[in-house]
Amino acid sequence: LALVAQQKGYRLILVVPDKMSREKIFNLKAMGAQVVLTRSDVAKGHPEYYQDLAAKIATETPGAYFINQFGNPDNPAAHEFGTGPEILAQMDNDLDAIVFGCGSSGTMTGLSRAFATASPHTELVLADPVGSILTQYIEEGTVSEKSGSWLVEGIGEDFLPDISDFSRVKKAYSITDAESFHTARELLAKEGILGGSSTGTLLAAALKYCREQTTPKRVLVFVCDTGNKYLSKMYNDYWMLDNGFLERPQHGDLRDLILRPYNKRDTVVVGPKDLLTTAYQRMKLYDVSQLPVIDDGELVGIVDESDVLLHVYGDEARFRDPISTAMVSKLDRLDVASPIEALLPVFDRGQVAIVMDGNQFLGLITRIDLLNYLRRRVQ
């Protein structure tokens, strides 16, 4: 849509749930689309639900046309007369099963119609995120009034789209976020295919299906989009660690809360002789608010946004001053064996926790690091 609108000179407004990756949003904005972010934690019928909000904006915008891919018959038609015949031609009309995900349901409905006459023996298999209502609907024929939440993007639903037709879908697999992400990463590691998060869901379901078979089958699965749109999430080890999808060796002390250990060269640091503009640029680049100041392997200070701001405000030329002129060198340090409760007074003073093992600097712990740690314990 963004490409077509750009080429045709149309104004395009896209309503996007706030769980979508920032790469997707940047991509759309780069192509000229106006992106309206809305909540991803509300259900259909809520004014902030992305479809309801899109319909409202369309009604209030003179001359607007609401694409509504969830109720637009052109959506499944594109797959019935385009994708379906293309697949069958490339597979020499020999296809035992096809594994797909369902968001708007256009792909599923269109392929179902195409295969109903051209390849009726082809089994349609749904790959669904845990939390979506669709697997229960396929297996039990009932529509749950409650849906969960999931981090995989683009597939799974909390309602049945108007254009959906599940009549030929007899098998469905619920796939966790963790299995989806790890499967997509494994696909990249083993096959060199950089797929998106829903690709992991589909491939995980396809593997489950294949392992259940007792005779050889020709099975097709989609790589739905490129993993370039998920570099800040699924392919980011720090994001995976934060969300509990990767595990580090546990030590039973404060090291378990350090996201970027210094001894693994994960901590972003500066030196006391570096310029304040260097500190500012690294904070921006790595999206952090404070930096340890390291001199000859030893921690000599901390510099944060406030330190830089107070030093340069009123005289921007001070950005060229060395970091030593603005850093805090009198530091409260926590021994690695300290209890977690010892972090709270540090945070209450508006500081980050500096974790030491004797004279050795191990890393920093922030409020969000503690929150992530506590959330992982609940999962």
Note down, in words, how this protein is organized.
With 379 residues, the protein is α/β, with parallel strands linked by helices. It folds into 3 domains: 59 residues, Rossmann fold; 157 residues, Rossmann fold, CATH 3.40.50; 131 residues, CBS-domain (Roll), CATH 3.10.580. It is built from 13 helices and 11 strands. The chain has a 4-stranded parallel beta sheet, with helices on both faces. Helix 2 links the parallel strand 1 and strand 2. The longest helix is centred in the first third of the chain and has 17 residues. Its EC number is 2.5.1.47.
Secondary structure layout plus pairing:
Blueprint: H1 2-8, E1 13-17, H2 22-30, E2 34-38, H3 50-60, H4 74-90, E3 97-100, H5 106-118, E4 123-129, H6 134-140, E5 169-175, H7 177-191, H8 197-212, E6 219-221, H9 237-242, H10 276-286, E7 290-295, E8 298-304, H11 305-312, E9 333-335, H12 343-348, E10 353-357, E11 360-365, H13 367-378
Parallel strand pairs: 1-2, 3-4, 3-6, 4-5, 9-10
Antiparallel strand pairs: 7-8, 10-11
How would you describe this structure in keywords?
single chain, 379 residues, alpha/beta, Rossmann fold, CBS-domain, 4-stranded parallel β-sheet, 3-stranded mixed β-sheet, 13 helices, 36% helix, elongated
Brief overview, please?
This protein is α/β, with parallel strands linked by helices and 379 residues long. 36% of the residues lie in helices and 15% in strands.
What is the fold-level CATH name, i.e. the topology of the largest domain?
A: Rossmann fold
Number of strands: 11
> Major sheet: size, sense and barrel closure?
4 strands, parallel
Under the CATH scheme, the architecture of the largest domain is 3-Layer(aba) Sandwich
The percentage helix is 25-40%
InterPro entries: CBS_C (IPR046353), CBS_dom (IPR000644), CBS_dom_sf (IPR046342), Cys_Synth/Cystath_Beta-Synth (IPR050214), TrpB-like_PALP (IPR001926), TrpB-like_PALP_sf (IPR036052)
Protein name: cysteine synthase
Cofactor: pyridoxal 5'-phosphate
Catalytic activity: O-acetyl-L-serine + hydrogen sulfide = L-cysteine + acetate
